Amino acid sequence: MRWENLTAGPAGDPARDAALFGADAVTTRTFDTPEFRGITFHEIRARSIVNRVPGASRMPFEWTVNPYRGCTHACVYCFARKTHSYLDLDTGLGFDSQIVVKINAPDLLRRQLASRRWHGEHVAMGTNVDCYQRAEGRYQLMPGIIAALRDHANPFSILTKGTLILRDLDLLEQAAEVTDVGISVSVGFTDHELWRTVEPGTPAPERRLDVVRTLSEHGIGCGVLMAPVIPFLSDQPAQLRATVRAIAAAGATSVTPLVLHLRPGAREWFMAWLEHHHPYLVRRYERLYAEGAYAPKWYQRRITRQVHELAQEYGIGPTRAGMPRRIPEPEPETPPTPEPTQLTLL
Ligand code: SF4
Fold first, then answer.
1. How remote is the CA of residue 267 from the centroid of ligand 1, in Å?
2. N or C end of the chain: which has fewer CB within 10 A?
3. Which of 76, 83, 129 has most ligand 1 atoms within 8 Å of its beta carbon, as the pocket-test mutant?
C-alpha cells in the first residue's frame, strides 16, 4: 500500500483538492493488490452526506446518500461519468480509476439522522454511483450506514450491481424488521460477450441474479432494474426474453426496463467504445440519438411493452412503490460542486 497526504491528488494542490472534493482533507492512496491495481483512492472527510435531490418532485425519493464518487465497475455507458468533471477529474478512465471515498460517511449519517431537523424521510442509495463497488470491500462503509438507518428505523432503498451487498444481509434483515427496505439489482441483459466489454468491472449477470435469489430466500423482496437495454446489441426479442426469463427465475418481485441514454460525459465514452467494438453500428446510433441523450419515444415504448408482456408471461409482478422507475431529466450544468447535481441510476 502507498499513501500520500495531499500531494498525489489529481491536481496536487491541497487547498484546491479539498475545496473540489467538498472536504476538509484529502489523502490519496493506492493498493498493490491485483483487485485495486491502477486505482487511486481519494479518502476525504466529507462535510455533508445526505443530499437533497434537485427537482425531487419528479422522483420517488428526495434524499440520497453516496459514500463514493467514481465507480470501478467501469460501465462504458455510465450516466454518472459527467459528475467526475465537477471534481476536475477525467470522465473516461478517470471515472473508473479515481475513486473518492467519504470515509466518515457512517458517522456523518448517524449525526444527521439524530438531528431534530431530520424527519425520517426515505433515503435512496446507489442512485449516483454503486455503493457496493469493489472499494466497499476494503472501506466497509455500508455496514455503518445501514446500521445507522436501522437504529433510527429510517426507510431506505439501495440500487446496485454489486454482489457485495450479500455481506450485509444480516443488517438488511434487521433493518427490514423495523422499517421499509427496498433493494433493486441492475441487470440489463444476460449476454456474456456484451457484459465483458461494456460492464468490465461488474459481477457477471448471473451472479447479480444470485443476489436477487438470496435476498428473496431471506424474505427481502428484490426488484430488477433492467438497465440499460442497449439498442441493436441487447434488444432483440430473443435477448429480451432470455433476460426476463432469468430475472423471473431468480425470484425478482418486479422488472423495470430502461433504454440506454447517452448524456454528455457518457456519450463520448460510449461512442468511442462502439467505434472500437461495433463500428458498423455508429451511424445507426447517430441517427437513433440524433435528438439528444434519449432514444426516441417510440423505441422506448416498444421496449417497455415487450418487457412488460414478457414479465406478465413469466409471472413477475409490477414495480413496487418507492423504487426507481425512470431516469430523471438531466439537471442544468453547474460549476464544480462538492456533490453531483444530477441523479443517475445504475
Ligand atoms: S452504471 Fe452503476 S455500476 Fe456501472 S459504473 Fe456507473 S455507477 Fe458503477
1. 14
2. N
3. 129
Say whether pTM exceeds 0.85: yes
Place of cell 422506448: 300
E runs forming strands in 70-201: 98-102, 123-125, 156-160, 181-186
Has residue 104 been placed in a domain?
no
Residue 163 belongs to a domain: yes
Coil, strand or helix at 293:
coil
Distance 71 CA to ligand 1 centre (A): 6
Spell out which residues line ligand 1, taking CB within 6 angstroms: 71, 73-75, 78, 80, 129-130, 133, 161, 202, 346
Say how many domains are in the chain. 1
Q: What is the CATH number of the domain that holds 185?
A: 3.80.30.30
Cell numbers linked to 293: 441523450
pLDDT in tens, 196-227: 999 999 999 999 999 999 999 999 999 999 99
Q: How far is the CA of 282 from the centre of ligand 1 (A)?
A: 23
Between CA 102 and CA 35 the distance in angstroms is 20
Nearest to 209 by CA among 252, 260, 148: 252
